[in-house]
Every structure is written in structure tokens, then in C-alpha cells.
Write a structure and sequence with these properties.
This protein is α+β, with helices and mostly antiparallel strands. 37% of the residues lie in helices and 20% in strands. A hairpin with a 2-residue loop joins strand 1 (43-47) and strand 2 (50-54).
């Protein structure tokens, strides 16, 4: 069962990650590194109380990708159109409309995550 009560307000992404269980912390840090490798200029912010990465300057929520930790997985909130574009490669993972869950007990698909982040960034740049 999850934590009860309101989600705390974190001051930094590190505060958020450090509040997670140890296994989730390491996977979140790895996911963060992968995102920064794919988009080194991304700005880290907290949005909806979770770590977010703005892919374009002053990007609104739909121009960000987010990550969150849970008891058995981490989620990458990348955007519905990106999820659709990579649907064949994401079949092995539980998904939401614009998110994918990566189990804590399996390696992150680094190459796939990099491709998705770069694809989302390219789509945003084309739209502007």
C-alpha cells in the first residue's frame, strides 16, 4: 500500500529522489542521467511535485517530460504522441496515455529512452 496523506512539497529534484525507497532512488537517478544525456540542455524543474525536464526554453507542462518513483517501478511521462510513435518498442511495459512504467527489478532500456526523449524534443522544436 502507498503512503498516506498529501504528497510533500519538495524544494529540489534531489529532495524528491532522496525521499523515495533506496531501489527507486537509484533507478530515478539513472533515468535522470539518461534524460540529461539525450537532452543536455534540458532544464530541471519540479512540476506537479515530481521531477520534470523542460525540453525547450520556458516550456510549458506539455513541453516537459516528467519522472516519478513508486514502490515497484518508475514512470516516465513523455507525451501521448511519443508513446504512439514507439508503441511497438514499448509493448513489454505497462503504459498509460502518455507514460510508461519501468519495473525497478529490470534494467532501464537506455537506448529506447534516449530515442524517445530526442524524438519528443525534435517534435517540440518543429512545432515552434
Amino acid at each position: 500500500m502507498g503512503k498516506k496523506g498529501p504528497m510533500p512539497n519538495f524544494k529540489t529534484i534531489d529532495d524528491y529522489i532522496n525521499s523515495q525507497p533506496n531501489e527507486a532512488q537509484s533507478v530515478l537517478q539513472e533515468l535522470r542521467r539518461i534524460i540529461k544525456e539525450a537532452a543536455p540542455e534540458a532544464t530541471e524543474v519540479l512540476n506537479y511535485k515530481v521531477p520534470s525536464f523542460t525540453l525547450v526554453a520556458d516550456g510549458k507542462r506539455d513541453q516537459q517530460i516528467m519522472i516519478a518513483g513508486y514502490a515497484k517501478f518508475v514512470s516516465l511521462y513523455i507525451f501521448p504522441t511519443t508513446m504512439e510513435a514507439f508503441s511497438d518498442q514499448l509493448k513489454a511495459y505497462k503504459q498509460g496515455k502518455g507514460s510508461v512504467q519501468f519495473p525497478l527489478n529490470k534494467p532501464l532500456p537506455k537506448d529506447l529512452i534516449i530515442k524517445m526523449v530526442k524524438s519528443r524534443k525534435e517534435a517540440l522544436l518543429k512545432a515552434n
